[in-house]
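Quick review question:
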């Protein structure tokens, strides 16, 4: 595989894989960024309220303000309402579910952050912001299908992370396909290919004249790298071996089987544990029935009254 574009070498992951870089990024997002956001949610409203009290009191600086005046000096509610709060939780849910296989501590940090978030939001909406206008809502609206979509993607992403960024599948292929005693003996040697240093292209070959450390390595004729390719000197040198295709097929099979198993378990749990408890469902059915009976009784009474009025008017006309 070529890693050069216009004679510039592309950045590559560590030979052990890209998992460590992903873990570092997730740790920064789940710890550092959340701590910064929580601090800003407390500091900014408090600073704005302090400035508002300082510049808007005017001649009443030495007087006691009424409660409604103190509330008016608080920060107005955001124009988007709770949109940013929902967005923050959905993004956090995405990071936790999409990459939990790479960073298993993400749910723990999310739980700690949410416990703090409850108290921070309570402070904001009771102390820092004006009293918001209430609005009735049946559910969380369009955020629910977004969360469902993220959940589906999370299953696929975690399957891909386990299959392609770890050596879990490669070890299984070695144990059940290439090991004589069905163990991991010889796995490292089997997973490393051989490269002859004389086959380095001139533009990337090491300049031994400028190397001043580890000079004993200048005479190295072969080096090893991760991959399943034919060694130097073979008629098919540096092309992928049959084991490479076996590993690729096993990775794809693992992704398909993993997501089907998870979706089946989720479907089974959804059936066993309904969204609405049985007693609540029965109460809702009873309330609907009573409401229909009340409407039917009221409509029947109205029709009888109309019929009685019409009969009375006809009798008056007959006289």
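Suggested answer, residue by residue:
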């Amino acid at each position: 595989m070529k890693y050069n574009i216009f004679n510039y070498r592309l950045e590559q992951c560590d030979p052990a894989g890209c998992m460590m870089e992903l873990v570092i990024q997730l740790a920064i997002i789940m710890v550092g960024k959340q701590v910064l956001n929580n601090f800003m949610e407390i500091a900014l409203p408090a600073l704005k309220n302090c400035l508002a009290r300082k510049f808007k009191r005017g001649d009443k600086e030495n007087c006691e303000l009424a409660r409604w005046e103190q509330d008016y000096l608080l920060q107005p509610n955001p124009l988007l309402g709770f949109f940013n709060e929902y967005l923050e939780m959905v993004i956090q849910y995405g990071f936790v579910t999409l990459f939990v296989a790479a960073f298993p501590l993400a749910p723990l940090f999310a739980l700690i952050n949410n416990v703090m978030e409850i108290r921070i939001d309570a402070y904001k909406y009771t102390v820092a912001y004006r009293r918001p206008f209430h609005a009735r809502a049946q559910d969380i609206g369009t955020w629910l299908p977004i969360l469902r979509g993220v959940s589906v993607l999370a299953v696929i992403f975690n399957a891909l992370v386990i299959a392609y960024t770890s050596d879990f599948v490669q070890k299984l292929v070695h144990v059940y396909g290439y090991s004589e005693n069905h163990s991991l003996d010889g796995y490292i040697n089997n997973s490393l290919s051989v490269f002859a240093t004389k086959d380095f292209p001139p533009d990337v070959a090491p300049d031994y004249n400028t190397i001043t450390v580890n000079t004993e390595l200048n005479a190295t004729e072969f080096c090893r790298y991760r991959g399943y390719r034919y060694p130097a000197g073979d008629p098919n040198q540096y092309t992928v071996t049959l084991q490479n295709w076996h590993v690729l097929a096993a990775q794809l099979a693992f992704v398909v089987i993993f997501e089907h198993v998870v979706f089946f378990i989720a479907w089974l749990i959804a059936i066993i544990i309904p969204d609405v408890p049985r007693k609540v469902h029965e109460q809702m059915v009873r309330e609907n029935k009573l409401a229909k009976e009340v409407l039917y009784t009221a409509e029947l009474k109205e029709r009888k009254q109309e019929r009685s009025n019409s009969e009375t008017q006809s009798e008056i006309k007959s006289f």
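Why it works: The mean pLDDT is 81. The longest strand covers residues 192-196.
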